[in-house]
Design a protein that fits this description.
Blueprint (H helix, E strand, L loop, with lengths): L2 H29 L2 E3 L5 E3 L6 H33 L4 H12 L15 H8 L3 H26 L1
Antiparallel strand pairs: 1-2
Length: 152
């Protein structure tokens, strides 16, 4: 597997998990929504037996999300294991670019750091971050290739 594609798995799976969580939330909201009747009082959207299919869908959605989370954790830990084999600065660059997420983010802001933010965190320029990343990708590819030869 190519090193960049290998690293991007983490972001791809994270996005899938976030989308699945949003679907879960939406299903739950729809299943438990209330409507206002003509008498001005809130009423449930229907009989309770009509809620059963919705609950079943929510349970299936949650199971799907949990399976995707397990896959995400497995891939993320594997990626971390591999980038930790690199020299410290290269490891840090890849970690910030592909693995580590912001603890807090503003609405519409990416979960991941920008090149300029990484440069600030690492105390260097964006150009240095780019060079570190490129060197790290080459070194990571060597690690992946050597493991592939060992397994294959």
């Amino acid at each position: 597997m190519r090193a960049v594609k290998y690293l991007e798995q983490v972001k791809d799976l994270n996005s899938k998990v976030e989308r699945l969580r949003a679907v879960e939330t939406e299903l739950w909201s729809l299943a438990t929504s209330m409507t206002q009747g003509f008498d001005g009082m809130p009423h449930a959207t229907g009989e309770t037996d009509k809620m059963t299919p919705s609950v079943d869908k929510i349970i299936k959605a949650r199971a799907n999300t949990n399976a995707k989370i397990e896959e995400y954790v497995k891939v993320k830990l594997d990626v971390i294991r591999h980038i930790e084999m690199l020299p410290q600065r290269q490891c840090e660059a890849l970690d910030l670019l592909y693995v580590r997420k912001r603890e807090k983010r503003k609405k519409g802001q990416s979960w991941y750091y920008s090149w300029s933010e990484i440069a600030d965190i690492m105390g260097c320029t964006e150009q240095n971050v780019s060079k570190l990343r490129n060197k790290a990708i080459k070194n990571l590819q060597k690690i992946l290739d050597s493991e592939e030869k060992t397994v294959g």
